[in-house]
Amino acid sequence: MDKFVIRGGNPLIGTIRVSGAKNSALPCMAAAILTEDEVTLENIPQVRDIETERRLLASMGAEVELGYGRAQHRTTISCRTLSDPEAKYEIVKTMRASSLVLGPLVARAGMARVAMPGGCAIGGRPIDLHIKGLEKMGATITQEHGYLEARASRLKGAHLVFDKITVTGTEDLLMAAVLAEGETLMENCAREPEVTDLAALLVAMGARIDGAGTSTMRIQGVTSLHGARYRINPDRIEAGTFLVAGAITRGDLIVANCNPSHLSAIIAKLEEAGARIDILSSDSVRVRADGALKAADISTEEYPGFPTDMQAQYMALATQAEGVSMVKENIFENRFMHVQELVRMGANIKVDGRSATVRGSARLSAAAVMCSDLRASASLVLAALVADGESILDRVYHMDRGYERIEEKLRGVGAQIRRMGNVFASRQDPVEAD
Ligand code: EPZ
C-alpha cells in the first residue's frame, strides 16, 4: 500500500496545472457504448478510476486505447462489438460509477447486467432513481444475486422528474434517452459541469439535446449516433483543492488549465475566508493568503452551490481560520470520515449528525493518518502541508483514484511530499468504492 510522507511548513508558490475532470471522463467513456464508431476523448486524467473504466469497457468487448504521452492524455474507444453487456461485481465494487454503463447498454444493446454498486465509505449510494427512470422509459428490470438485469427492445421517451438531484442518475438517463423512441423531458436534473460535458459529447455524436446545464432537459431520440472527438473539461474539484492548498499554506499559487467559471462558489467562500483570488485569464486563477484566515460557514449543495466534493478540503482550511466555522453536509450521510484523522493532528472539530463545528486557529502536529475516501485523503494532505513535522498518510490509493500525480504537482510548487512504496502503477485494486 503506497503512503505519502509530507513535512509541513512550506508555502506553495508557483504554477500548478489541473488535469481533465475524472467525473466528466467516466460518463463520456460510457457514452462510447452508444455507437459502433470510434470515440476519442482528450484531456483524460491519468487516475485509477479511468483505468478501472477501461477494464470495465474492455470486459464487455470494447476496444479501448488509453495513452498518456506528454502531448496527449487520450483514449479512443470502439464499441463495434459488445460481446458481453455486463458490468461484473469485481469491477463495480471498486468503482460505483460503473453503474453509468446501465443506460447506454440498454439503449444500444437492449439489455444490461450490472452488479449493484452497494454502499461505500461516504454513504449508501443507491441507484433507485436510475432504475425508476429506465422503467418509466419501458425497460423491465429484475434484481437477483446482487445484479440488476434491464431489458427493452427499444426505450421510449418519457417525462422523468427526479425525486432527488442525482449527477450520475441524470447522466445515465440522458444516455438512455438519446437513442429512445420519441421525446424525453427530464426535470429536476443535475446541473453539474460534468453533465454539460457529457451532453456536449453526445451532441457531437449526433444527439438532439436542449437545456443541458439547466434543471430541465428535452431530448429528441435518434435511431443511431456516430463517432466523435471531444476534449474533456478541467477538473473543478482538483482546481478547488489546489486553491485551498495555496490559501492554507499562505502561499502565492497560480492554478492553471482550470475553468474559473466552474469555481464561483469555491472562490466566493475562499474570499470570505480571507484569501485573495485573482482570475488571471479564462483558464487560470491566482490565490494568495498572506494575512489571517477568517472563519466562514459552508453548507454543501448541488451545483452551482458549494460542492460536497470540496467539503473535506475546506474543513482543513477552517481548522486554521480565526473563529468558529460551521460545516453542513447536505448531500451524503457519512462524509465526515476525515474529521477523526484531522482531530488526531490537533484539530478541534465536533460532529453532530450532518453538521460539524470547527474551532479554528488549531496548531496541527504531524501524525500517521489513514485515508478513507478520495476527498478525505485530499483533506489530510492539506492538513499535513501545514502541520508541524512529518506526517505519514496511509492508503493513498484512494487519492490515486481521482488526483493525477498529485505529489509531483505539489512538489513542483514547493511542498515537501514524497511517495513511499510502489509507483502509481501498483496493481492492487482498492477494496472499496466511493
Ligand atoms: C457524483 O456521484 C460524483 N461521482 C461524486 O463525486 C459527487 O460527490 C456526487 O455526484 C455529488 O456531486 C461521479 O460523478 C462519478 P448523486 P453520484 O447521485 O452521482 C442520492 C468524487 O469525490 N441518490 O448526485 O453517485 C445519493 O445517495 C465523487 O469524485 C439516491 O438516493 O451522486 C446522494 O445522497 C464522490 N438515489 C444524492 O442522491 C439515486 O438513484 C446525490 O447523489 C441516486 C442518488
Name the shape in a single word. globular
Structural class given helices, strands, pairing? alpha/beta
CATH top level label of the largest domain: Alpha Beta
**Number of structural units classed as domains:** 2
What is the CATH architecture assignment of the largest domain?
Answer: Alpha-beta prism
> Beta-sheet strand percentage?
25-35%
How far the N terminus sits from the C terminus, by CA atoms, comes to: 18 Å
* CATH topology (level 3) name of the largest domain: UDP-n-acetylglucosamine1-carboxyvinyl-transferase, Chain
Strand order of the largest sheet: 22-23-1-24
**Rg calc:** 21 Å
Q: How many strand units?
A: 24
What binds here, in terms of ligands, is: ligand EPZ
Walk me through the topology.
Blueprint lengths: L2 E5 L5 E5 L4 H10 L6 E5 L5 H12 L3 E6 L4 E6 L7 E2 L1 H4 L9 H8 L1 E5 L12 H9 L3 E5 L2 E5 L7 E3 L5 H11 L5 E5 L5 H12 L3 E3 L5 E5 L7 E4 L4 H13 L3 E5 L7 H9 L3 E6 L2 E5 L9 E2 L11 H8 L5 E5 L8 H8 L3 E5 L2 E5 L8 E3 L3 H11 L5 E5 L2 H4 L5 H6 L4 E5 L14
Parallel strand pairs: 2-15, 3-14, 6-7, 10-11, 18-19, 22-23
Antiparallel strand pairs: 1-23, 1-24, 3-5, 4-5, 7-9, 8-9, 11-13, 12-13, 15-17, 16-17, 19-21, 20-21
Helix pairs in contact: 1-2, 1-7, 4-6, 5-6, 6-7, 8-10, 10-12, 11-12
How would you summarize what this structure contains?
The protein is an alpha/beta fold and about 425 residues long.
